[in-house]
Amino acid sequence: MKAGDEKLGSVFDGKVRYKIPIFQRPYVWKEEANWIPLWDDLAQAVSLVEAEGLGGEYDEQPREHFLGALVTQARSPVPRRVPTRQVIDGQQRLTTLQVFLASAFRVAAELGATSAASAFESLVRNKVADDTEYPQDRFKLVPLPTDRAAFEWAVRGPGDVRTPPSPHHLLVQAAQWFDETVRAWALEAELPTDRLDLLHFVVTERIKVVSVFLDSRDDPQVIFEALNYKGVPLDAADLVKNLLFQRLTLQGEGRLEQDLHESSWKPLDARNWREKVTTGRIARARVDTLLAYWLSSRRGELVSVEHLYAEFKVWLTGSPQPRAAEVITDLRRWADTMDELLARPMTDSVRQVIDRLEATNTTTPWPIVLSLFATEGVPDEQAVLGTEALDSFLMRRAICRLTPKDYNRLFGAVLRALKTADPRRAGQVVVDELAHQTADSRSWPTDGEFVEALMKDDLYNKVSRARLRALLTGIDTALATSRAEPGAPQKAKSNLTIEHVLPQAWRTHWPLPTEIDMDPEVAAAKRDIHVNQLGNLTLATGPLNSEMRHSAWLLKRRALQSHSLVRLTTASILSLPAGINSFTPEEWSSQWDETRIALRGLWLARVALIRWPRPMPAEDPRLT
Is residue 154 assigned to a domain? Predict the structure, then answer.
């Protein structure tokens, strides 16, 4: 390895091609964070040279500007081809500089700065014969396939009026931004052509990079990690990608690199997988969470996103070493599975489970769910059984206010059991592992324990809002019948709010009946107990909730009848719940009181038991 500072002019001087390897991430630099600071450095350097010129002489030891590091590794020469260097680090900066130089080339040609235009062209184009077999060798940079069309447009020559291939591509936007910026900057000067000459002088003589040249014996992965893993905002997936594609070569399967990138990894570089999602309190790229879920299934223990790359590297280089090609294709299968599950309609029971996971910010079950649906040989009914068992386990424990602190170890145990189990009974394995737990931190509440918790007097204040909303939306979905109007079930995380039918501040608008046969203080205490019970809760839109607020029952009933489509309301508040025989339909909705709250609460608890059942486990071999 050799390292030293190098003038930018010599980086692009002569015939050279800088190839971005397939394991690098696509172009991601943007205006505010990257293009503006780069241009400011260049423009400042020109200003200093202009100031020197006004003084009549140029400094013998002028100030130089450094634009960061560039790490490259020589590739074996190929007959009749331009020499190639692989870019290990600095590809974003290198690509942006080529786009900037191409913009300077076009602007100089447009403004008649012939000398500057020719000079800039030599920094962007290699001189190759018109009839060459390799016309792509005319470019100084070989970007990733995903960036190639946009890059070739961004470095087009003067007079090329082609429509950009993708107006929203960052390379297209960078070219347009540098075109406008360099043109406006040049035209600020009395002699724009002279200013463009100075710009070329600065680029070639006053701007430097720290160049690191690797030979064939150097491990580029070590350099890549050292420069990027600490302090540079790379996603963990970028480091994993780098590692996997370099392992291909080490395992003698480098020939598969291009095909695997196009067929398997390329979608993981797309915008939807690079979006940030919140896991705990930290926002991570969605692809990072996928990789953590996948690695968790392979290791049989939950892997945190925070330590993803370090743990992935230990696993990949361990014994026995997995084939990188198989890992890459399997990751794609998991990504497709996750996309397919999220794209399912809300009428699908598994999509409803995922909706509750999202609404309650619960990520620990995801590796199990994906393993069930992405593993070959697992029947769909078994995958559904295991997913719904997880949902029941989580809902029952949350309503019973049991701790989630041991979920990491518990779900790790489930993953280990799945690794060695017959895939044809994978869902039953999940049921068995959960049902056979006996510790308080892992037990699956019985029907009796679940109903008792649901009937608690202060359910509204004892259960988190997100979990309580998930409970109510799940019950609402369960109440849909074949005779109901078609429509998607409510999402747990939506604009619906939890509404108390009998208001919490009932004393102002809901006075106690004058004909009660008990002490008023006792009656008030009894009513207070019922306010936050399950039987008094429903869902409503924010505007409807605000409209009703503390309204008297007849006014609230009229508002609900006019606007509410929630089955939780229409089937058990405005209508007599099926199976309750102590009221006629007319009597049920004529008023709302403690008796109706208690009866409705029991009725909803029975629905919840059906919605979140506790399946019977197979016989536990540990007890025989």
Answer: yes
